Amino acid sequence: MTDERGEVVLRVVPRPSDINSNGHIFGGWVLSQMDIAGGIVAGRIARGAVATVAIEGMKFISPMLLGDLVSVYAREERRGRTSVAIRIDAVATRGGMQQQVELTQGIFTFVALDETMRPRPLPPSGS
């Protein structure tokens, strides 16, 4: 499914063990879900292995709650010679009314890797 946020790459439900001391989902948990989703999209673009090299503009908008269905959207934001920036948005579907709540967003940059784990050029866009 694709919309203005990009494609839904992951849908996950946090577990009770993902709760922090405030009763919300631990921020590191959602960061890892976003990194997984971004890596999937970046790997498709790079047609191979990628590594996360930066996270920029990370913004937590609303807390995540136990029972939220978290959808992680991703889309290409920009590309360089060896790297691609992926915009990632996490949205919760919450409660019986299926309310959509914006949770967090950020831009994750991935570098394409060759077989020796060194940066390599991305394939041409659209090919």
N- to C-terminal distance = 22 Å
Mean pLDDT level: 92
What is the topology, as strand order, of the major beta sheet?
1-2-4-5-6-3
* Helix content, binned percent: 10-25%
CATH class: Alpha Beta
H and E order: EEHEEEE
Rg computed from alpha carbons, rounded to a whole number of angstroms = 15 Å
Tell me the total number of β-strands: 6
Assembly type of the shown chains? Answer: single chain
Strand content: 35-45%
Profile the largest sheet: 6 strands, antiparallel
Q: Shape, please?
A: elongated
Provide the CATH topology: Thiol Ester Dehydrase, Chain A
CATH superfamily: Hotdog Thioesterase
Number of domains: 1
**Second rung of CATH, namely the architecture:** Roll
Q: Which structural class should the secondary elements be placed in?
A: alpha+beta
Low-pLDDT runs of 5+ residues are: none
Supply the number of helical segments. Answer: 1
InterPro entries: Cytosol_ACT, HOTDOG_ACOT, HotDog_dom_sf, Thioestr_dom
GO biological process, one term: acyl-CoA metabolic process
Keywords: Hydrolase
Pfam families: 4HBT (PF03061)
Write the layout of secondary structure elements.
Layout: E1 2-3, E2 6-12, H1 27-46, E3 50-60, E4 69-79, E5 83-94, E6 99-112
Antiparallel strand pairs: 1-2, 2-4, 3-6, 4-5, 5-6
